Amino acid sequence: MEPWRSPAMKVVLPTVIAALLPALAPAQEVGRVGVDWVGNDIIVEALPDPEVEGVTCHVAYFERSFIDRLSQGNWFEDPSNSSIACRQTGPIELGDIDTGPEGEEIFSERQSIIFKSLRVTRIFDEENQVLIYLVHANEVTEGSAKMSISTVPLWNARTAQPAPAQ
């Protein structure tokens, strides 16, 4: 028997994969607007920042219909076009955020079967005390210049305090 088909690997492999995947924020669909007679839609999702309490982003993107996929080809891919707006929706409390220049991915959703995903990355502008949210496509073979940003100023934001040791 091949080692990857053993009963132990059926338990170990999914556990390892789950541990390696980043803990990304869950998005909730809050709107769906039909844009034509073939069933193409614009989807709007609410995305709370998992490390910054009090900030919610709304991401809009295009979802192709089955009829559009049949007539246009390119069956397994949605366009990279997207938009984002982030706002303070409560008292802001900063958690343990990445402050490096590349930021931290807080959301990812597939836009094709393998090669493309829609991502939201949070970048901290420390000098101006602003959180920048960048929505963009991530592609394996060629990058996309389609992007959008939204900013949230951190006026009177609190830093999360670690729980007291017991």
Automatic annotation (TrEMBL):
The keyword Signal applies. It comes from Rubellimicrobium mesophilum DSM 19309. Residues 1-27 form the signal peptide. The keyword Signal applies. One of its GO terms (cellular component) is cytosol. Keywords: Signal. This is Uncharacterized protein CreA.
